[in-house]
Design brief:
- This is G-protein beta WD-40 repeats containing protein.
- The protein is mainly β.
- The chain has a single domain, classed as YVTN repeat-like/Quinoprotein amine dehydrogenase (Methylamine Dehydrogenase, Chain H).
- 8% of the residues lie in helices and 42% in strands.
């Protein structure tokens, strides 16, 4: 299947600028502009304008590798801010207004490097989940928040919606967690 994709697809564009491995990309539309954000081992987060084929912004504030970068639809739809959230091996999660090149907030709750972040698909992306090697869930490499409700639980969770978090770990497991109780489902 990959060979079929390669033979029938056409490269549209290549963005260059990072000086080390790119670990994460996210794609979104802000003010009718198609944008990509990227996080890299070169300790930067960059924003690329797809329509104009160029880099429009770069954040150099991390002390270590940037592992995950995501656009925040919550900030855009509720505050008209163009914000990227990103996590790093420096144990922080940062929110950056890339339109005004201003750091908004830093979360310092993890005690080891942070691999993955994910915004909720409910409540307009208001909630953020993070996965770290500090074993707050386990040595987590990836996380996701389910857009589906858990019908097995009668426990009320955020807004009484029954949402769950899924984590993938270095212990070779995938686990599903109740958001409110932070307990694993059996």
């Amino acid at each position: 299947m990959l060979d079929t994709f390669r033979s029938s697809s056409k490269l549209i564009n290549t963005f260059t600028g990072h000086t080390d491995e790119v670990n994460s990309i996210d794609y979104s539309t802000f003010d009718d502009c198609q944008l990509i954000c990227s996080g890299s081992d070169d300790k930067t987060v960059r924003v690329w304008d797809v329509d104009n084929n160029k880099q429009i912004q770069s954040f150099n504030g991390h002390l270590s590798y940037v592992h995950c970068a995501k656009f925040s639809s919550y900030h855009y739809h509720n505050h008209r801010q163009n914000v990227i959230c990103f996590s790093s091996f420096d144990k922080t999660i940062r929110f950056w207004d890339f339109k005004h090149n201003k750091q908004l907030q830093i979360f310092n709750g993890h005690t080891s490097h942070i691999y993955d972040i994910e915004f909720s698909q409910f409540n307009g992306g208001r909630y953020l989940c993070s996965g770290s090697y500090d074993k707050t869930i386990h040595a987590v490499r990836c996380v996701d928040i389910s857009p589906l409700q858990n019908n097995k639980s009668n426990i009320g969770v955020i807004g009484g919606n029954g949402y769950t978090i899924c984590s993938g770990s270095l212990d070779n497991t995938i686990r599903i967690w109740d958001i409110e109780t932070t307990k694993q489902f059996n």
